[in-house]
Structures are given as C-alpha cells and as structure tokens.
Design goal:
By secondary structure, the protein is an alpha/beta fold. About 40% of the residues lie in helices and about 25% in strands. It has a nine-stranded mixed β-sheet with strand order 6-5-1-9-10-11-12-13-14, with helices on both faces. Helix 11 runs antiparallel to helix 12. The longest helix is centred in the last third of the chain and has 15 residues. The protein is globular and about 50 Å long. About 50% of the residues are buried.
Amino acid sequence: MKKILGMGNALVDIMISLESDSILDLLGLPKGSMQLVDKDRSNAVLSALTNYKKSLSAGGSAANTIHGLAMLGAKTGYIGVVGEDELGGFFVRDLIQAGVDPHMIHSNQETGRAVALVTPDSERTFATFLGAAIELSAEHLDPHNLNPSLVTGHTSLFSGYSYFHIEGYLVQNHELIRRAVQLARQHGLIVSLDMASYNVVEANIDFLMSIITEYVDIVFANEDEARALTGLEPEAALDALSDLVKIAVVKTGSSGSLVKSGPDQYNIGIIDVTPIDTTGAGDLYAAGFLFGHSTGMPLHKCGELGALLAGNVIEFMGSKMSPERWEKIKAEMYNS
C-alpha cells in the first residue's frame, strides 16, 4: 500500500458553538476567515466566551487529512511541532491512536491552538495561536534533528512514502515549504497542496503560484481560495489551475466540487446530510480524494469518496468522527 506523509501546523482545535454572527463582530473576527492571533488575543477570545460550551479536537488542516487517511486504512506519517504540555500530549496521542507515524518535534513553547467559532449556519471562523507550531523549519526536515528512534533506518523523512500532503497555512514560511517540496520531488513523491484559507492565499499569491507551478501535482481549493489566487469564478479558476497542475480540485460548498485533469472534468455532487459544523470538511475531502488516488480509483470516484467523507464529518462538531461512523463510511466505500 502506498504511504502518505503530511506536514502542517500541529494545533488543537477548541470548538465553540455561537448563537449568532454578531459575536464575531464584537470579537473583530471576519466570518469564515482564519485569523492568526497572539497568545494574549487567543486568551481574550476564550475569556469572552467563558460561558460557552467547548470541546477539544486534535486539528490543523494537514493533520486532519492524514488522520482521515489513517482511519480509512492508509499508511501515513505526519511532521509537526508541539509543546511539552497537556495539549501537545493530546495531539500526539490522537495521531498514534489513529495509526499515524508521528515525526514530531517537541518545543518549550505552548502547543498551538485554534479557537474555532461555529455560527448557526455551520460556518466556522478561526482565531489561531500557532504557538509551538510556528517553530517548524526547513532544518527539521533532516531526520537527525528528530527523535532517532522514530527515523531509524531512514536516510530521509521522505523515504518510503509515495505522497506528500501540505497545508497552505504553512506558506508564510517560504523556506520551509520550498525545501519540503524540493525534498519530496527528489524522492519521487506526488505533491498535494490544500490552499487553506483565502486570506492566506491573498497574502502569498506570488509564492504560491511559484510553488504550484514548479512542484505541486494535486491542488485543492475552495471557491474563495481559488478566486483569491486566480481572480476567477469556480469554473474558470478550475481551468486556470488545471493548466498548472496534473489534478485541480475546486470545492464549491453545497454545490459539490469540480475536478479536472487535462481535458477530463467531473462535477461531483454532495451526499444528503444534516450539517452541524463544517470544520474539517475540506480536510476530509482531501483525505478521501487522496485515498482514492493512492489506491488507483478513477478521478470521479476519488471525488465521490472525498464528498462522502466531507458530508459525514459535517454532521459532527469538530474534525473527528466516531469509530462507528468510520465503519459505516468504509462499508459504503467498498460497496459502491
């Protein structure tokens, strides 16, 4: 079975359901965005929502995708940085329990956290304190800088893997991303990029275009991210992206998704669900799609598997599903 390596900001999501959008205005957080905040601002947001019910979930975009792949039965690994604290332990245990090989760096800084605010329409807005996650650097891609027991017998972190999946939230660190995709390419890995957030794309357009053109094979973007990068609406953005990569995917929310490779284009629908929280939907779509691709499924089936995972996860609060739901998904997947 082909192995898939992920790299991203290792974060713990703190999920909070809001009663209305007006609270976002009071907190100064644009709806649907991912805002990077410092520790004090993160604490202030949490303090303002003291009386709201909270739930924890190991998160970060790439980690969610890798976790989903592992739950489907794929062989996976993950590179990230966590603190030597309770949240860091929570994050690593979550990976191990799912069967992910953790290639983790441990820091004296606090583990990063993403306060995820979910409005009544199931849209989520993030106030993200990166904490230790921001310390991930190009030099960490040398296995000798990690725990030797985790990389014994490997000349590179990329050895033995066939795919490398990265999240767009890392693109502020240009040196890290460029070195990572260079190493992935040197080792013959298929490179997959999830765009992450429209405001991150807007701030890094030139760099993203360079990396996508030179190194990326599969790109995932929602319609806002695709518009931020190309200035075009979904269909035209899909065409533009497919000129740059082997496989382009533009997710269009309740309309489904568009998949294109060369001249072949597919419109993928959604499954009938009762949404509670859209957190993790895009990440789990990528998990389903990459699992399908790594096991030789045709592109439209990859998209349908992505839609199956995305539809199921939005019936849960946070980016994780129950073991019973995963069994149901796998049964549907193998019976389709």
